[in-house]
Structure formats: structure tokens, C-alpha cells
Amino acid sequence: MGLRTGEVARRAGVHVETLRYYERCGILTPPPRRMSGYREYPPETVEIVRFVKRAQELGFSLREIRELLELRQLPPGAPERVRELVQRKLDDIEQRIADLQAMHRALSELLCACRTRRRRARCPILESLNGTKPARPRQEHADGKKTKR
Questions:
Q1: Phi and psi at residue 44, to the nearest 5°
Q2: Less Cβ around it within 10 Å: N or C end of the chain?
Q3: Which pLDDT tens digit goes with each residue over 39-83?
Q4: What is the pTM of this model?
Q5: Mapped to the 3 state alphabet, what secondary structure does the chain carry?
Q6: CATH topology of domain 5-73
Q7: CA-closest candidate to residue 46, choices 6, 9, 91
């Protein structure tokens, strides 16, 4: 016997609108409807939705998840293709981490410039965001001298 939308959503831990969204995106096949008009999902839909949510938590896009769902049917070469998808995702995450670290460094430098230039009429952070080059923060050397970077 099939499950109604609310029951699938409850068991999978999602909102009913999530199921409808997954249908529109092609993640879930639209289920048949009962005579009353209610959707009647097959019981395995709960497992599929949980799979989708776990994959999203790992950073996979819906397009990638759709491909992973297709690969669950284990066509020839599926394990290799899954490894390729996961490696691509890892590469993407590593790049995003590097980008975030670069952003962190840039913002830290701007904050340092702001702290060392309190007497200036213009804020180095705002100057930087405006596209004008802010004064570089001074760094202290081991001998106690300060120099611009």
C-alpha cells in the first residue's frame, strides 16, 4: 500500500513542500493519485528522500544527486562513476576552503588596517570596498621596527 504525502514527509523528516519540489526537479517521480486526488507514494520513497537529504548535507547539488540516484541501479561502471563524482565534490570543497581562507586573510588585513589607521578620515575597509587601495597595515619585526607590507 502506498503512502500519502504527509506520511512520507514525516518518515523522511522533511516538509511536504520538499516532496513537491523534488517532483518538480525530477528527483522524485510524480506518484499516482488516489481516487480522492491524494498522491500515493511507494514506500521506498522515504528511503530515496533520506538519501537525497544526506547527499545534500555532503554538498551535492540536486543535479549530482539525480545522477547518484540513477547510479544506485548499478549499471556497469557505476562504482567508478560514483568515485569520480565524489572526487569532483572533494576537489570543489577544497577549492572553496582555499577561497574562504583567502577571504579570511583579506578581511583580517582590512581589519588590521582599520585598527592602525583610526586617525584617518576615511575608513580603509570602506575604501577597499569602493575599489580604492587602502594603506597596507604595518607589521612589527622581531627587532621591534614597524614596516609597511
A1: -70, -10
A2: N
A3: 899 999 999 999 999 999 999 999 999 999 988 887 777 788 899
A4: 0.70
A5: CCECHHHHHHHHCCCHHHHHHHHHHCCCCCCCECCCCCECECCCHHHHHHHHHHHHHCCCCHHHHHHHHHHCCCCCCHHHHHHHHHHHHHHHHHHHHHHHHHHHHHHHHHHHHHHHCCCCCCCHHHHHHHCCCCCCCEEECCCCCEEEC
A6: Multidrug-efflux Transporter Regulator; Chain: A; Domain 2 (1.10.1660)
A7: 9
